[in-house]
Amino acid sequence: MRNRILLSLAVLAIAIVGMAFQTDSKPWAVPDKNAKMANPIKSSPESMSKGKTLYIKNCQDCHGKKGLGDGTKVPDLKSTPPDFTKAAFQSQSDGAVFYKLSEGRNDMPRGKKDLPDDEDRWNLVNYLRSFKK
Ligand code: HEC
Q1: 66 lines ligand 1 (CB under 6 A)
Q2: Exposed, middle or buried, 106 (CB in 10 Å: 0-12/13-18/19+)?
């Protein structure tokens, strides 16, 4: 009897931990009009270099140097940064990526607040494309 109670408690604990780690696997819906927004900044060496500087300063600690989602801060986070090299990420439109990094969610900060200049955030979108394999 006692063992059964312990077992039930263990199962419950695992379920709760599992739920806690699931928050980030929910699909992140992007409104249609945002997803269709065109990138006003053409990808160029200049835009890439601006994006890279911003990335190293503001994003790398979580997203990792190569965008793999393996930054040094990850162990302290409750949600997991995605792998930017994967098709699941790269197949999104520039508008969708811009929307997500502007709005933020869970541990992902609200870019609109930290980097209020739209141009900075579009340069970041261009830079994130460099992680494509
Ligand atoms: C404190 C850690 C942290 C920092 C700093 C951070 N991110 Fe994130 N980012 C995350 C996490 C965690 C997620 C996943 C959030 C979720 O799905 O709920 C995420 C998600 C994203 C996504 C959405 C990916 C997708 O398709 O679902 C983009 C784009 C992104 N980050 C870009 C950036 C950029 C650009 C910066 C720098 C300006 C940045 N992030 C800074 C933690 C961080």
Answers
A1: no
A2: middle
Tell me which CATH homologous superfamily contains domain 27-131. Cytochrome c-like domain (1.10.760.10)
Among 53, 63, 74, name the best residue to mutate to test ligand 1's pocket (greatest count of ligand atoms within 8 A of Cβ).
Answer: 63
Token representation of residue 54:
């911003």
Query: Is any ligand 1 atom within 6 A of the Cβ of residue 125?
Result: no
Q: Locate the domains of the chain by residue range.
A: 27-131
pTM of the predicted model as reported, rounded to 2 decimal places: 0.86
pLDDT, tens digit only, all 133 positions of the chain: 677 767 676 665 655 555 555 554 689 999 999 999 999 999 999 999 999 999 999 999 999 999 999 999 999 999 999 999 999 999 999 999 999 999 999 999 999 999 999 999 999 999 999 999 8
According to DSSP H, which parts of 29-86 are helical? 32-35, 45-58, 60-63
**Phi-psi map region of 75: left, alpha, beta (phi>0 left; psi -120 to 50 alpha):** alpha
